[in-house]
């Protein structure tokens, strides 16, 4: 059994919207007053306010979702950019290491066919200690940049 859905007049909606801006929940006395002013049942006013709060919450969730999605997209893009930068820095380190140590001596990175890089005694010194190329490849991006900055200044 379906009830007839009564539409509110523009004036009724305008008044309830203006009240909603200052108070999203009505006390019983205020609800009765608004209902009398608009010629509605108190239950109709209560339901309108309940539905309006639900719409407000839904819009807020949508805004929050869009903001979070934008932040995620920016972070994902930045992450991919940093991964590429890290690979570029590692390639530069390998090239510099090969030029510095020449041939297949310590510090050079070799590759087995179809396998991960094989790290030989790849060690470089800075003022703070010794790092193998394997350790450098496992470092966070900021640590790699800082280590390179120290080594190659």
TrEMBL record:
Coiled coil: 51-99
Start and end residues of each Homeobox domain: 1-59
Source organism, top-level taxon: Eukaryota
InterPro entries documented for this protein: HD, HDZip_class_I_plant, Homeobox_CS, Homeodomain-like_sf, HTH_motif, Leu_zip_homeo
Keywords: Coiled coil, DNA-binding, Homeobox, Nucleus, Transcription, Transcription regulation
CDD domains named in the record: homeodomain
PROSITE patterns (UniProt xref): HOMEOBOX_1 (PS00027), HOMEOBOX_2 (PS50071)
Compartment(s) of residence: Nucleus
DNA-binding region positions on the chain: 3-60
Principal localisation: nucleus
Pfam families assigned to the protein according to its UniProt record, in alphabetical order: HALZ, Homeodomain
Biological function: Transcription factor.
Protein family membership: Belongs to the HD-ZIP homeobox family. Class I subfamily.
Full protein name: Homeobox-leucine zipper protein
Organism, as annotated: Hibiscus sabdariffa
Lineage: Eukaryota, Viridiplantae, Streptophyta, Embryophyta, Tracheophyta
């Amino acid at each position: 059994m379906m009830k007839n859905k009564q539409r509110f007049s523009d004036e009724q909606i305008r008044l309830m919207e203006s009240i909603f801006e200052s108070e999203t929940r009505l006390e019983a006395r205020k609800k009765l007053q608004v209902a009398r002013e608009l010629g509605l049942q108190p239950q109709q006013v209560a339901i309108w306010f309940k539905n309006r709060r639900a719409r407000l919450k839904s819009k807020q969730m949508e805004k929050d979702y869009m903001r979070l999605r934008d932040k995620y997209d920016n972070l994902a893009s930045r992450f991919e950019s940093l991964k590429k930068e890290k690979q570029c820095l590692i390639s530069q380190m390998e090239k510099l290491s090969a030029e510095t140590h020449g041939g297949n001596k310590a510090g050079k990175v070799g590759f087995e066919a179809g396998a991960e890089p094989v790290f030989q005694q790849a060690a470089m010194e800075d003022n703070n200690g010794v790092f193998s190329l394997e350790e450098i490849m496992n470092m966070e991006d900021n640590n790699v940049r800082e280590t390179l900055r120290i080594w190659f200044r």
